[in-house]
Amino acid sequence: MDEEYDVIVLGTGLTECILSGIMSVNGKKVLHMDRNPYYGGESSSITPLEELYKRFQLLEGPPESMGRGRDWNVDLIPKFLMANGQLVKMLLYTEVTRYLDFKVVEGSFVYKGGKIYKVPSTETEALASRAPLDPQDIPCPSQEGP
Fold first, then answer.
1. N- to C-terminal Cα distance for the chain?
2. What 3-state class would DSSP assign to 74?
3. Which of 5, 16, 47, 77 is deepest in the core (most CB within 10 A)?
4. What pLDDT is stored for residue 46 in this prediction?
5. Interior CA angle at 39 toward 36 and 44, to 5°?
6. Which residues of the chain form beta strands (DSSP E)?
7. Span 84-93, average pLDDT
8. Residue whose C-alpha is closest to residue 94's, from 140, 11, 25
9. Does pLDDT of 142 surpass 50?
10. Dist. CA 19–CA 25, nearest whole Å
């Protein structure tokens, strides 16, 4: 790597990716690197499921009852973006949308105390839920970003 760069960005967390994208869109020559074999830093999404087990050094792999590993995508930190929020506008500006898709969330789950709980997404689900969730486990529409 004997090239010259205007900026070198270390890490591929959300902040570093946005920073790198903004500088690139504004004409800077950017070298963007990460020490991990995956993108996203501590806020990455890990797939297949076997990679999650490796990441947390779990010697036994996922049980067969969980199905195919590639059918799973686990966020280390759940990420919810408000449809018209500042973060979405920034992602559109940097043209990162060429590399990602926005999807409607089908369900959100939290692992707590050795069990997996569904995060209620409707008033009916919330009233029927017995999940021991903390307020920070539940995405709040008034907050933006991860």
1. 34
2. strand
3. 16
4. 83
5. 105
6. 7-10, 30-33, 45-46, 74-75, 109-112, 115-118
7. 80
8. 25
9. no
10. 10
In sequence order, the 6+-apart residues with CB closer than 8 A to the CB of 14 are 40, 41, 43, 79, 145, 146
Of 97, 82, 70, 84, the closest CA to residue 139 belongs to 82
AA identity, residue 95: E
- What value does the CA radius of gyration of the chain take, rounded to a whole number of Å? 18
Q: Report d(CA 18, CA 96) in Å as an integer.
A: 9
Q: Identify whether the C-beta of residue 133 lies closer than 8 Å to the C-beta of residue 112.
A: yes
Cβ atoms within 10 Å, residue 46: 19
Task: Tell me the C-alpha distance between 11 and 33, whole Å.
Answer: 6
Continuous H helices in 1-145: 14-25, 49-55, 86-93, 123-128
Length reported for the chain: 146
Paired tokens of 116: 């997996």
The position carrying tokens 């779990």 is 58
